[in-house]
Amino acid sequence: MPPPTASRPAPDAARPGGIPGQLSGIPSQPSGLPGQPAATPNALARWWATESLVTRILGIVGAVVTLAGLVMLLVLAIQQNWFGPVPRVIAGVVLAVVLIVLAHLVHARERKADRAAVGAVALAGTGYAAAFLDVVAVTSIYEWVPAWVGLVLAALVTGLGLFVARSWNSQALAIFVLLGASGFAPIVADGATWVLSAFLVALVVASWPAQLGRNWPWVTAVRIVPPVFVILITSALSQGRPEEPAAHAILTTVLAVAGLALATVEARGSGAAMSPVTFIGTAVPVLFALLPLEVPWRTVTVAIAAVAWLGYAALGESQKWLPRPLTISAAALGTLALLLAIVARSATAWIGTALLVAAALYVLVAAATRSTTALGCALTVTGIALMGYLRHPITVLVERTAVHSDLAVIVIDSFVTAGLVAALAWLAHRFTGPSLTTRRLIGALSWVSGLVVATTAVVSVGVLIGRALDDAVGGFRAGHAMATILWMVAAAGLLILGLRRTRDAVLALWLGLGLAATAVIKLFIYDLAALQGIWRVIAFIVVGLLLLGTGAGYAKALERARATQPSAPNPTP
After folding, report:
1. Would you place residue 271 in the very low, low, confident or very high pLDDT band (cuts 50, 70, 90)?
2. From residue 550, how far is each of 515, 517, 518 by CA, in Å?
């Protein structure tokens, strides 16, 4: 072994500048040599040392505080009688102009230094929003200019601010302007009136061109959601004044038409993902604005909106020039408008009939076109219509309610529902997507529903005939006796159908057996208690004969079915 002193390093404490406990040859940290990891600052230091984040936070808070101060200048000064109208407005205009000029100067300086102009964005957004609020105050509070002049000026201010945002390619600036204008406009405006809604409509429409060729989804959301929310609240709060319903109906109609055009352009460009937001956001207010109108204007206008949206959805899907989310949105909103138009009628007796007719039309369209969008709307309307129809079978189930009901409506609804059930069966046959089990289940439900509808119609016709003969109770009993017989006839037909070599033979057989059992149970539980006299006798005798005849006919049909089947080959020995 070599001598111990040959390889033992000298202690660092004995070397000038050494650190006790550190071996020689290993530099102390931080070394500054290549390959050595630099010391990492803590997360707090990284947060407050980030210039852009701090600038954004200060800019947002500063914009909110500045606009709040401007609102106090325009509104609170009136309440406290500060200054006069002219000094207030001049001060607001000067503040807006100064902020805008400073924004452009700061933006030019930051761009020249190749830095992010975050402060300029905050200044410009505050300035253009302040200019918009000045126009609202001049028009709404002081009434120095007519409403249409104020709307034009507001549109120009908004368009100029969004044009600057587009030239700077700054989505943040557009958001600043839109949020500041729509957020503080309700405070500056003189109450919840149609003038406030008109300014917000102008804001929505005038700000749209800035998005052409830009993928700015947040601008779309900010441009649509806050103004529409304010319009809905304003429309609801201002209905007490006579001129407000008609004014809001016109304004929201303009907004809906403009939104339809804007959504179409967005769908065929870079804003396809946000086009449903534009369409739904601009279309929903018109429904709320049209409902307070008087009949028949309410029904007519909402029906026109429904036809327009449904036609738009049908055209877009058939021609394949609109994205699917937009066509689904249009179809859903058109269906909602159609339901509102039906329910908004003054006469409530035929609402159920109108819903059934609409459901049948939807089902026929879905079956003819095989459109999944139409299918979803058809099933929705059908579910609502059938839930409304369910009151009729319950009505004819009890003698007291059946005798004193409007049976003409029940009969008509039953015939329309029978057509709806047939259309549903055709729809299930046309769509090959569902499995065989699902389609068989739909077929079984169609049979059951059809039987319930037929029973309701038969009992209703019986009561109507009884009324004509001054014996409504007798007509009720005769109707239920005929209904039981009808059940048994349908059961016999299904049992015979089950012997045919068809794909649904097993289903028909089980339905027939179940229906026959149900007819017998109804005979012994309901008819025995509800029917009296000759109608009870007729029901029992006819059902019994049908059971006997069905049994004999089923045996013969089964023997013929077996005879027509090919005999199995003898096994080879």
Report:
1. low
2. 13, 13, 15
| CA atoms of 573 and 568, how far apart (whole Å) | 15
Closest CA relative to residue 476, chosen from 536, 431, 517, 521: 536
pLDDT above 90 for 359: yes
Q: What are phi and psi of 293, to 5 degrees?
A: -70, 160
Ordered DSSP codes for 543-560: HHHHHHHHHHHHHHHHHH
DSSP-derived 3-state class of residue 296: coil
- CA-nearest of 202, 131, 200, 199 to 164 is 131
Cα 468 to its chain centre, rounded Å, is 49
Whether the model clears a pTM of 0.90, i.e. scores above it, the answer is: no
Is there a cis peptide before residue 296, judged by omega within 30 degrees of 0? yes
pLDDT at residue 569 is higher than 60: no
Is the peptide bond preceding residue 27 cis, with omega within 30 degrees of 0? no
pLDDT in tens, 175-211: 888 888 888 888 888 777 888 889 999 988 888 887 7
**What's the half-sphere exposure (Cβ side, CA atoms, 13 Å) at 375?**
14
Query: In Å, what is the CA distance from 54 to each residue of 112, 127, 357?
Result: 21, 20, 62
Question: Model confidence at 330, in pLDDT bands (50, 70, 90)?
Answer: very high
Tokens 């738009």, residue located? 312
Residue ranges of the domains in the chain?
Answer: 53-190, 403-560
Q: What is the pLDDT of residues 449-500, one digit of tens each?
A: 888 888 888 888 888 888 888 888 888 888 888 888 888 888 777 777 666 6
Please state, as a whole number, how many other Cβ atoms lie within 10 Å of the Cβ of residue 424. 25
Cβ-based neighbour number of residue 30 at 10 Å: 10
Torsion of CA 298, 303, 306, 308, to 10 degrees: -110
Show the CA angle centred on residue 213, arms to residues 254 and 179, nearest 5°: 55
DSSP per residue over 213-253, as a string? T---HHHHHHHHHHHHHHHHHHHHHTTTSTTHHHHHHHHHH
Longest dimension (CA), the chain: 135
pLDDT at 331: 92
> What's at 477, amino acid-wise?
R
Residues 313/369, Cβ–Cβ less than 8 Å: no
